Amino acid sequence: MTAQLLSTSKLLNLDSQKLPQHVAVIMDGNGRWAKQQGLPRIEGHRRGASILKEILRACNDWGIKTLTAYAFSTENWGRPLTEVNFLMALFEKLLRKELQEMNEEGVRIRFIGDLSPLPESLKQEIAHSMTTTQNNTGVNFNVAINYGSRLEIVKACQAIAQKVSSGELSLDTIDENTISQYLYTAASPDPDLLIRTSGEMRLSNFLLWQLAYTEIYITDTLWPDFNCSEFRSALAHYQKRDRRFGKVKLKE
Ligand code: IPE
Ligand code: IPE
Ligand code: MG
């Protein structure tokens, strides 16, 4: 059996017609996982990165079109410098190490967030990975780095205001779609499913606009313990949800 068939068969009891198009993940709990193991926090991040690779591959194999992963928030700069530096170095190292394989697997990688304050060498890897994979047709992989939803909305407002003041955009044509088009996520539909690991019941400044009608799945599992079988459970829960979008069903 080919690797592709093997993975698809691992959909097991899931309905392949009812998979979410776009899954977003708040990969939380790396530090707590490391503490449980008696390891430094950075080991949790290292292990977390390999889990992300597994979940990305599952999305690609199962036909989930877009995966958006929260890797570093605008608030995460407030962590100890050693942890921040480790994370920046890890992102860069992973891009170098994994780009070729991701490209061969058809992954299209994009970064969302304010990339300007990132280290130059990381910015170069980011630009290189985006141009290398831009014509790929497999899973769209959005990585949120120095991402904060409020900052994203502020920047969208500034850009829209600029267009209005230069006369390129008229005030009365601004609608919800205009706002969506000025966000970092303009190229993707809104997420259908948000997964947050490690049990926290909050959004932590992630995709506040885009998650308006997203189904939310929170698991106590720490991100480094998350795996394809847990992912399948999240998808199974999603498939049981009744997405009403504020409407009522006239007939059951
Ligand atoms: C998530 O894990 C990874 C990042 C925020 C970069 P944490 O590092 O937040 O782990 P906990 O929440 O402290 O366990
Ligand atoms: C959210 O996790 C950010 C990422 C997963 C990158 P945090 O650990 O930073 O969020 P809080 O502090 O629990 O809200
Ligand atoms: Mg955390």
Question: How would you explain this protein's 3D organization?
Answer:
The chain is of the alpha/beta class and 252 residues long. The chain has a single domain (17-148, 192-238), classed as Undecaprenyl pyrophosphate synthetase (3-Layer(aba) Sandwich). It is built from eight helices and six strands; from the N terminus they run H-E-H-H-E-H-E-H-E-H-H-E-E-H. A six-stranded parallel beta sheet has the order 3-4-2-1-5-6, sandwiched between helices. Helix 5 (120-133) links the parallel strand 3 (108-112) and strand 4 (140-147). Residues 1-6 have low confidence and may be disordered. One 3-methylbut-3-enyl trihydrogen diphosphate (IPE) is lined by residues 27-32, 72, 76, 87, 198.
Quick tags:
252 residues, alpha/beta, Undecaprenyl pyrophosphate synthetase, six-stranded parallel β-sheet, disordered N terminus, binds 3-methylbut-3-enyl trihydrogen diphosphate, binds magnesium ion
Write the layout of secondary structure elements.
Blueprint: H1 3-9, E1 22-26, H2 30-36, H3 41-62, E2 66-73, H4 81-104, E3 108-112, H5 120-133, E4 140-147, H6 149-165, H7 176-181, E5 193-196, E6 215-218, H8 228-240
Helix pairs in contact: 2-3, 3-4, 4-5
The structure holds 3-methylbut-3-enyl trihydrogen diphosphate (2 copies) and magnesium ion.
One 3-methylbut-3-enyl trihydrogen diphosphate (IPE) binds next to helix 2.
Count of separate DSSP helical elements: 8
Q: What ligands are attached or bound here?
A: 3-methylbut-3-enyl trihydrogen diphosphate, magnesium ion
Radius of gyration: 19 Å
Trace the largest sheet across and list its strands.
3-4-2-1-5-6
Task: Detail the poorly predicted runs.
Answer: 1-6
* CATH level 1 class label: Alpha Beta
Order of helices and strands: HEHHEHEHEHHEEH
Distance between the termini: 42 Å
The biggest beta sheet is recorded as: 6 strands, parallel
Could you name the CATH homologous superfamily? Decaprenyl diphosphate synthase-like
CATH architectural category: 3-Layer(aba) Sandwich
Structural class: alpha/beta
Morphology call: globular
**How many domain regions?**
1
Query: Strand portion, in percent?
Result: 5-15%
Helix content: 40-55%
Mean pLDDT: 95
Classify the fold: give the CATH topology.
Answer: Undecaprenyl pyrophosphate synthetase
